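The authors assume throughout that readers already know how a fold can be written as discrete tokens. A single example would do more here than another paragraph of explanation. An entry of this sort, consisting of the sequence and the corresponding backbone structure tokens, reads as follows:
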Amino acid sequence: MTTPIVEFNGDFSEPGAPAVPWADVERVLTTSEMFFLSTVRADGRPHVTPLPAVWDGGVLHICTGDQEQKAKNLARNPSCVLSTGTSALHGGLDVVVEGVAVRITEPARLRELAALWKSKLDWDFGVGEDAFRDPAGRNGLVYGVRPAKVLSFGKGPYTQTRYRFPSAEDLA
């Protein structure tokens, strides 16, 4: 994974507070089980739903049923936001990931991800032709969201830090 460009926002942080290190943000992404996925419906209305996710290899992975609203939204517009954190006001770290959801269909990678879902979340997924299969035989479409931008909001002290991930064109 590319090391992000860190941009501390002092205007929305307590005086003297430091930027949150990327390692702290990545720890939240690795250990969090539930995230909120925000997508856009065909008519432009937002759609937000909680779902489990797995951080692996610099990519946040999600799974959704092939008939669910979020799958329909991502098929039409793969830009999305995933957020996680804590409901506490005076402690913890909230993290927001912006990116594009890309379907993962390669069987070997799906098997790796199914093993991660089992080890982290104790969910049993089999692997079908190009998707997860749950014990009832339903398809679960798997997506990877590589961050374009991540925001962290510390709450003890209050901080706001942005992490940008330059594309290959930006580095040329």
About this structure: Strands lie at 5-8, 34-40, 46-56, 59-65, 79-84, 93-103, 126-127, 132-133, 139-155, 158-164. Residues 107-121 form the longest helix (15 residues).
